[in-house]
Amino acid sequence: MQLSIVIPLLNEEKSIPELYQWLVKVLEANQFSFEVIFINDGSQDQSGKILDALGSQDSRVRVIHFQKNYGKSQALHAGFLKTKGEVVITMDADLQDSPEEIPELYSLINQEGYDLVSGWKKRRYDNVLTKNIPSKLFNAAARKISGLSLHDFNCGLKAYKSEVVKNIEVYGEMHRYIPLLAKNQGFSHIGEKVVKHQARKYGSTKFGAERFIFGFLDLITIWFFSKFGKRPMHLFGSMGVLMFLIGFMTAFIIGASKLYKLWNNIPDILVTQNPWFYIALSVMIIGSLFFLAGFLGELILRTQKNQKRYKISKTVN
Ligand code: UDP
Ligand code: MG
């Protein structure tokens, strides 16, 4: 199979039929063999029923129903596991991303040999204050930190080589920086393509102004993950060792001068009257705590690997 289209959605009942028809029209016109995987991320409206109906009349439509709303990253993760196509395309369900882009995205992966091609909504039709400006800031910072020269990390429309989606772990809110996850897994041929973007036709956005805060926090996470995500001990351990050494050296100097003065019968203050004693003590304690944080980080990383992060209630096709 050539193409797997992965579409996470939450309460998009109005858009689904139109999106399905548009997709099928474009994909059939280009004679692709394909599947469309919808992940119903706990919708409260008729989305689930509409998807089941589509699945029963068209076996190329495959549906994953989540038990409840787990978020876009979890939905993508579940979709990625199910894909059979050589090239995987992700897109939003709200008709903001255009299926017309798919043939070109496909050939960028298949012919030009890209591992990942990210869409770039160069002209964007979203709220300027809550979306466009924070998103520009987020992307600028993400570029700096990741070393990837992408304009639009968070674009829903992306194309991947199958290997890429099978090898990255998208969870939490990490759908915002999938290109970085791919890069961290060693997929370095990452490109971007300007894509058409439209204003939302039906329903409302699921992400609001909270992006101001989340975007910034995500950024710190990006930095931490790309540098120390796999080895928290490297960060905390080295900080811990450094702190501990400073404390230990200070204590050593205090002890040595004490001995020297004792030896030569020079009168000296009590150790507890020396402020440096307390500094040495606290620095050593903080150092040990850093170490502990490193160990806990490693421990969490290990246990999380085997954990299911979402519960699927039903699948179709
Ligand atoms: N979405 C989802 N789970 C969520 C939130 C959103 O699957 O918890 C889907 C949503 O239905 C849409 C896509 O993710 O298909 C992008 O969401 P939205 O259009 O609200 O984001 P925006 O375009 O405003 O950034
Ligand atoms: Mg949208």
From TrEMBL:
Top-level enzyme category: transferase
Signal sequence interval, chain numbering: none
Gene3D superfamilies attached to this UniProt entry: Spore Coat Polysaccharide Biosynthesis Protein SpsA, Chain A
Keywords: Cell membrane, Glycosyltransferase, Lipopolysaccharide biosynthesis, Membrane, Transferase, Transmembrane, Transmembrane helix
Pfam families hit by this protein: Glycos_transf_2
EC number annotated for this UniProt entry: 2.4.-.-
Membrane-spanning segments: 212-228, 235-256, 276-301
Protein origin, superkingdom: Bacteria
InterPro entries: Glyco_trans_2-like (IPR001173), Glycosyltransferase_2 (IPR050256), Nucleotide-diphossugar_trans (IPR029044)
Domain Glycosyltransferase 2-like: 4-167
Alphabetized GO MF terms: glycosyltransferase activity
SUPFAM superfamilies associated with the record: Nucleotide-diphospho-sugar transferases (SSF53448)
Entry protein name: Glycosyltransferase family 2 protein
Organism (species): Mesonia sediminis
